[in-house]
Specification:
By secondary structure, the chain is mainly beta. The chain contains four helices and 36 strands. The strands form nine sheets. Strands 3-2-1-36 form a four-stranded antiparallel beta sheet, with no helix packed on it. Strands 4-5-6-7 form a four-stranded antiparallel beta sheet, with no helix packed on it. The longest helix is centred in the C-terminal third of the chain and has 24 residues. It is globular and about 90 Å long. The relative contact order is 0.07.
Length: 559
């Protein structure tokens, strides 16, 4: 019988509850903390839970069911575990008191087995994570000014290797076993582009992949579960075109195999959410001005399935990656769509108004929605749901700050078959307000925005005979224009190919077309070089192939 635990942090206590076969009860082995807690976190394996109660950091062990260690840090503002729960990292705001040094340690690593601090430095700026580990905890990184420091096997007194990059501001270690892959971000300056480079530890002399881009004041690097592919969400603080008050965003792709690409989004506007499928072969993006689009892409950055548009700003795959939830929370009404990922079929639609938090249960069937402070001060509480629409538990809590599931190791819960049976929906669905003068009158069904349906629900429109003729004319005109461009590359006098009777394209024609395409690229590179742009090494090598390409084209034309 599977037991799922989740922690609740409010203004006056920290508690743990358990879910057993759709039944909720208190976890009595955990003694409730009755002081206000600033932060709470489970270890990645779910073995420990840590929280700060404004007096100290406390740690509870679920295996021994007792408090493991107490850390005397009352102002802790951030805490998180290393991947195998060997270390706990704490950070507190620098507040210098009389008689204390101005550079005292604010960021510290604690060894949980002994409860001692093994590394401490003074960092004033708040970030989500400073020290970052590989999955096996052998490698640990810390990004400092123009350098990334790497520590090995918990030896924090000795820097094993350094990655020196002028302006480096973000380091991410890919998941997975050795050889470790490192992603480093450098912000562009003085007209130079920003870039993300991938390295294999500790060969920092030659990157294995590079992706450069403009308009990036900051980035967020998202590795997939296998650690072979990463998405780079770039953003600027100001939109120079004036199209958005919140700046511009773009999505880039980079792979340890050396591939890189730009994810082309079909609608302009902000990028609200990105989520990798746990199978690491696909990812979902929610983007565009409201109503937002949602699209699943493959590793070639090609659209696999388009969900159309709707009031949504978040996407969450469940643990097994077979169910995707698309939802609109925050300032939206809390509509949730649940999709069968493999069959691209909608399972259910629900609504949870005023939701500020959504989190899947590790069993892949249940999920949690909550209304938390300080985002919303009224109506705080949480609900436990089944994806079929059954709300199995609901609780109101004054000043609810956080609620989160206990992580479980992969494979504990098998993937279950998806059922589309629906039950009675929650009472959360609220009718739109109508003033007294309008009540009893017909409802105006006109829409401010036209909602685009998912691609499998779109109806193919029959073209009229006239429209079909015009379409064929446009296609023929485009083909003729393309052929003329190929035969006259940037004004270069290239012999025209022999006209071949209509039918399948010959191998000779294909080869000629490819050669002329390469020649056109060389001409463009020459113009860039003449304009003063510095070319990459591979671009310079391409320029040197111009004569051989011309000779090969002449031989094919003569034969």
């Amino acid at each position: 019988m599977a037991v799922e635990l989740f922690a609740v942090r409010s203004s006056n206590e920290v508690s743990v509850m358990k879910l057993i076969n759709s039944s909720i009860s208190s976890y009595t082995n955990f003694e409730r903390a009755t002081l206000s807690s600033r932060f709470l976190d489970f270890s990645p394996d779910g073995k420990y839970i840590a929280w700060c109660n404004s007096q100290c950091v406390q740690l509870f062990d679920f295996e021994s069911e007792k408090e493991l260690v107490t850390i005397p840090r009352e102002r802790t503002n951030i805490l998180y575990f290393s991947p195998k729960s060997k270390y706990l990292v704490t950070w507190e705001i620098l507040a210098v008191r009389a008689g204390e040094p101005s550079d005292k340690n604010t960021l510290e690593i604690w060894e949980l087995k002994t409860g001692r601090c093994i590394k401490g430095i003074c960092i004033k700026k708040r970030e989500n994570k400073y020290f970052k580990w590989s999955d096996d905890e052998i490698l640990c990184s810390l990004c400092v000014t123009n350098e990334a420091h790497f520590y090995v096997n918990g030896n924090f007194g000795n820097i094993a290797h350094k990655l020196r990059l002028q302006g480096v501001s973000c380091i991410e270690i890919a998941p997975g076993p050795p050889p470790y892959k490192i992603a480093a971000y450098v912000r562009g300056t003085k007209g130079a582009p920003s870039y993300v480079r991938l390295y294999e530890y500790a060969n920092f002399e030659f990157p294995i992949a590079n992706k450069s881009f403009f308009k990036a004041d900051k980035v967020n690097i998202l590795w997939n579960k296998k650690g072979k592919d990463a998405l780079i969400l770039t953003s600027t603080e100001v939109d120079q075109t004036g199209g958005s008050y919140y700046g511009e965003q773009s999505l880039q792709y980079i792979s340890t195999s050396g591939d890189s690409n730009t994810v082309i989004l079909a609608k302009k506007g902000p990028i609200y959410a990105i989520d990798w499928n746990p199978n690491s072969t696909q990812f979902c993006v929610v983007y565009g001005y409201m109503p937002a689009k949602a699209t699943i892409f493959n590793l070639k950055c090609e659209s696999v399935f388009d969900f159309g548009t709707g009031p949504r700003n978040t996407a969450h795959y469940n643990t097994h990656g077979n169910i995707l939830c698309l939802a609109g929370f925050g300032n939206l009404r809390g509509n949730m769509e649940f999709w069968d990922v493999k069959r691209h079929k909608e399972i259910n639609k629900l609504q949870a108004s005023d939701t500020t938090l959504f989190e899947w249960c590790p069993d892949g069937q249940h999920f949690m929605t909550a209304t938390t402070s300080p985002r919303l001060r009224e109506g705080n509480g949480f609900k436990i749901w089944h994806y079929n629409g059954n709300c199995i538990y609901e609780k109101s809590i004054n000043e609810l700050w956080q609620v989160t599931w206990q992580p479980r190791p992969e494979g504990v819960f098998p993937e279950l078959s998806i059922t589309s049976a629906k039950v009675k929906k929650s009472n959360d669905e609220v009718q739109a307000y109508r003033p007294p003068s309008a009540r009893g009158t017909p409802v105006n069904t006109s829409k401010l925005h036209e909602i685009e349906p998912p691609e499998n629900a779109k109806k193919t429109k029959e073209l009229s005979a006239n429209a079909l003729r015009n379409k064929k004319k446009r296609e023929a005109k485009a083909r003729t224009k393309k052929e003329n461009e190929d035969n006259n590359i940037c004004g270069r006098d290239i012999p025209e190919s022999t006209t071949v009777a209509s039918g399948a394209t010959t191998e000779k024609e294909k080869k000629l077309k490819n050669l002329k395409k390469k020649l056109k690229q060389i001409e463009e590179l020459k113009l860039q070089k003449k304009a003063g742009k510095k070319l990459e090494k591979n671009q310079e090598e391409k320029l040197n192939t111009e004569d051989s390409l011309l000779e090969e084209i002449r031989q094919l034309e003569v034969s």
